Amino acid sequence: MKENFQLKVSDILQRKHFENAMVVAGAEGLHHIVKWVHVVEVKNIRNLLSGQELILSTGVAWQEDHLFFTMVEQLIENQAAGLCIELGTYLTEIPSEVIEIANQHHFPIIAFQQEVPFVEITQDIHSLMINQQYRMISDLENYSQSLNKRLLSIETYEDILQFIFSSLDVQIIFRLRNQEYEFVPEINGNDQKALIKELEGAKAGINRQFAYAPIYLFGQEYAELYLFSPELPISEFDLLILDRTATALAQHLLRDLYVEEKKRVEEFEWLQGWLDGEHSEEGINEYLLEQGFKPKTSDAVVLIAKVSALKEKSSQDVTYLKLLFRSVFEQNGFAVFSVEKRNSLVFILLNNRTKKNLKERIKKAIESIHESEFMKKQNTAKMFIGTGKFVESLCKLHKSYFTAKETVRIHQEMTKKELYTFYEDLHLYRLISQINKHIDLQELVLEYLQPVIQYDQKYNGKLLETLKAYLECNGSKQETSNRLFIVRQTLYHRLQKLENLLGPDFMEHEKRVAIEFMILVNDYLAPSGQKKEFKAR
């Protein structure tokens, strides 16, 4: 199949009108591939060729030896397939220096000893090429149909690799992410090492013996597929077959992942018991070994992803979302177990690297998920991810789960909505949440901030916003005015009004700390509607 669509110079020598043609130079280049035929009768063609053209000429513009030599140099430089020159009318012989440079570069020069019809030659060869293109399209369609039928019944991706090998008869190289290279047909270890080394070198530059197709799942490169042809350059047909096969492999691998994810749903009860602290460390390690996972550390954390309208989504979308999380977090060094809740997805992350930079890797993974095509298409769905406390023992995972739930609950009360929040970053909000369970914090807020809140409600004076910025800027008037985008005079006026309402000592240490804390409490309480009650009082 491969040779059917690679027309070489040697093949053209067998065509009509080439019966009496002679190869006068560059015989070692007769294997050159021909993609088109051009008639050239000009002195400069540097910008007219794209490579692999067979040139026909009478030499009318190259009758002087130096012009002929310069022309052949240009053809070699532009990677033309060869030159067919008609002798007799304008040229009687090929200059020796032209023959010498052609032999050096294995550039075929074919001489017609008598006048030949260039029109008929180009028509014949172009017709042959066009017919080859039609056959290539037909064979490609047949390959695609056969491959699609096989996808319905094949069990492993190895069957697909065997199918492309039987069709192209070239070396197939395949590698799943973070795994070893596989070779079809199998070759010995030394040949594998040499080929891998050559393959790595080919990635950095152009190598017509290799072709490469990445296989993407969820916007991430999941596998690599290569073709290696030691004898003939990779053809356009090979590249098309490679592309079709890469797509089929992606579909098959995605199906495998989908089936695997479905099986994981059956593990829900055991995982829920783990989250509730019902399993011993011995039982947890035994379960992980059954799953084929041996943890490198005991570091773990629980994430809760709250996705709006999750109940309304199809089970296919939810499964795909879990696959997306699993794929991205695994690439960032975590083993992932998931539990589906009513309006959220719970993910257990086990650190699978010796490094302790869990937080940075989690941030990177969440950002990647947020920027994925799948999430961008979910126009109506909003997502928040609450991360619990990091634990260093697998049997203490319930503590991370509890704090992850607390993180989500606190986030729902906060004014500022982020894509994700870590429990350890909540600081005073954790304290506010606990105090709010036992004390009416609203009374405390009113005790400190009621004059400011009432003034803003009556005059829209933006004093609370100014107070918050002024405290965050540690009393720097210039930084505060820049942050609020107001002139200094406006800021001075507002600060004077705050001093009148809160007292001239509002920036003294103890009172300032209390006011800062009450601003956080106000932000925490605001979404629940307390601001309306402030006004009523």
Automatic annotation (TrEMBL):
Lineage: superkingdom: Bacteria
Purine catabolism PurC-like domain span: 11-128
Domain PucR C-terminal helix-turn-helix per the UniProt entry, residue ranges: 463-519
Protein name according to UniProt: PucR family transcriptional regulator
Species of origin: Bacillus salipaludis
